[in-house]
């Protein structure tokens, strides 16, 4: 049966490596992943392995949003993890490379990697480039806001249509620090993807070269006996949380990192997010809480730029390992970084002294809740004339949540 697919005895004698390719036509995040998976195959062959590609599902949050289809979103994460595990386990693969680029298929891949615990590498499909509208960069967030502007009479129907047609110019995941870019950042910092994977845009030619290196990296892991749970330690998860809160990432990071940690048998709770968030400054001026997108960050060194700031401040475990066999500190220090840039602030003069996510507890959520405060910490809601003192006290209490991080409501 293997020879029927064109394999030779030499191919059969080599390690078998699965490539879970999440390519599909249901979202721009995944439409191009076949090209990246092909480059991964080349890298595996160059590393003396035999690649086997298969696919699975994706549900696009952005496209199903506002419909009953959103009920399928989180469910899809579990289906993706189960399907990758089923094929890789059932076909007795020696290694695994996952290629993904959407909100739920990325953590689904990571959950499967942690479950299987065979040599594995994650490859991100990359971020979309910003579009152009009236001489400025725009992205999907601008369209959401424009709908409200049109409803309020501040934008014409023709302007709204022009923006809609230009905000997403091609392949790749949503440009700002939404769930996909948040998770790609977390995965790179945890060490399960190669340095630079998180911030390379989808159309960057270097993305294919990186995919080849990922194929070669999984073969090195096989030779050296390195498994995902050797990398997915508690220190790795703490590094991921630190970078996510420092950049003001998506609240979904809490949901997904805890699910991945469970599969990796690492005890991770909301208290960890609360503790790290209290002690980590918010330093990224990135959408949706700021001005810039992942393509901008990529010009100045990518996630390594953020890592350098945090590492120098003593906020990261620099000795945590990566799939390329180097430590987090080594990967950060070997990356070309441009310090004079507008996207990432210094830890000495941050946008806020505490992180972009807050954990809350109280009668509405006794087990805890997470809110995104990135870009909003400096805002104070004051009681209007005639309002009760009680309302004013609540407003002041909210403004103080940036320092207490766990305000009870």
From TrEMBL:
Biased amino acid composition, Basic residues:
390-399
Q: Where is the Dihydroxy-acid/6-phosphogluconate dehydratase C-terminal domain?
A: 343-381
Task: Work out whether the entry's keyword set contains Membrane.
Answer: no
Which GO molecular function, any one, fits this protein according to its record? Answer: dihydroxy-acid dehydratase activity
- Which GO BP terms, alphabetically? branched-chain amino acid biosynthetic process
- Give every Dihydroxy-acid/6-phosphogluconate dehydratase N-terminal domain span: 14-331
This protein's UniProt keywords: Lyase
Instruction: List, as start-end ranges, the regions of compositional bias called Low complexity.
Output: 400-409
Q: Where is this region: Disordered?
A: 379-409
Does this entry carry the keyword rRNA-binding?
no
The superkingdom listed in its UniProt entry is Eukaryota
Quote the InterPro entries the UniProt record gives.
DHAD_IlvD/Edd (IPR050165), DiOHA_6PGluconate_deHydtase_CS (IPR020558), ILV_EDD_C (IPR056740), ILV_EDD_N (IPR000581), IlvD/EDD_N (IPR037237)
The entry assigns this protein to a family as follows: Belongs to the IlvD/Edd family.
| Name recorded for this polypeptide | Dihydroxy-acid dehydratase 2
**Taxonomic lineage of this organism?**
Eukaryota, Metazoa, Porifera, Demospongiae, Heteroscleromorpha
């Amino acid at each position: 049966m293997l020879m029927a697919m064109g394999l030779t005895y030499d191919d059969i004698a080599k390690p078998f490596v699965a490539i879970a390719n999440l390519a599909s036509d249901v979202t721009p995040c995944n439409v191009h992943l076949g090209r990246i998976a092909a480059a991964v195959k080349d890298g595996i062959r160059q590393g003396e392995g035999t690649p086997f590609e298969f696919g699975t599902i994706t549900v696009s949050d952005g496209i199903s949003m506002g419909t009953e289809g959103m009920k399928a979103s989180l469910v899809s994460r579990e289906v993706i993890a189960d399907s990758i595990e089923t094929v890789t386990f059932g076909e007795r693969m020696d290694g695994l490379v996952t290629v993904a680029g959407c909100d739920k298929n990325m953590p689904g891949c990571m959950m499967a990697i942690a479950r299987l615990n065979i040599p594995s590498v994650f490859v991100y499909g990359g971020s979309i480039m910003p579009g152009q509208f009236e001489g400025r960069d725009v992205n999907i967030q601008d369209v959401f806001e424009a709908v409200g502007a049109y409803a309020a009479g501040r934008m014409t129907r023709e302007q709204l249509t022009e923006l809609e047609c230009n905000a997403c110019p091609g392949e790749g995941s949503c440009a700002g620090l939404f769930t996909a870019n948040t998770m790609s950042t977390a995965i790179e910092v945890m060490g399960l993807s190669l340095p630079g994977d998180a911030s390379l845009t989808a159309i960057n030619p270097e993305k294919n070269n990186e995919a080849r290196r990922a194929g070669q990296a999984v073969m090195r892991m096989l030779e050296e006996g390195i498994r995902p749970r050797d990398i997915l330690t508690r220190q790795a998860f703490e590094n991921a949380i630190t970078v996510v809160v420092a950049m003001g990432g998506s609240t979904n990071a809490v949901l997904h990192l805890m699910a991945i940690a469970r599969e990796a048998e690492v005890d991770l709770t909301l208290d960890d997010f609360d503790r790290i968030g209290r002690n980590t400054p918010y330093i990224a001026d990135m959408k949706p809480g700021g001005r810039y997108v992942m393509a901008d960050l990529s010009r100045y060194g990518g996630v390594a730029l953020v890592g350098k700031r945090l590492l120098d401040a003593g906020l990261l475990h620099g000795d945590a390992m990566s799939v390329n066999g180097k430590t987090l500190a080594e990967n950060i220090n070997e990356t070309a970084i441009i310090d004079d840039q507008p996207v990432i602030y210094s830890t000495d003069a941050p946008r806020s002294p505490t992180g972009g996510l807050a954990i809350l507890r109280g009668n509405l959520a006794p087990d805890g809740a997470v809110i995104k405060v990135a870009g909003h910490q400096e805002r104070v809601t004051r009681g209007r004339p005639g309002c009760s003192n009680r309302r004013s006290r609540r407003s002041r209490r909210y403004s103080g949540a940036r320092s207490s991080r766990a305000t009870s409501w």
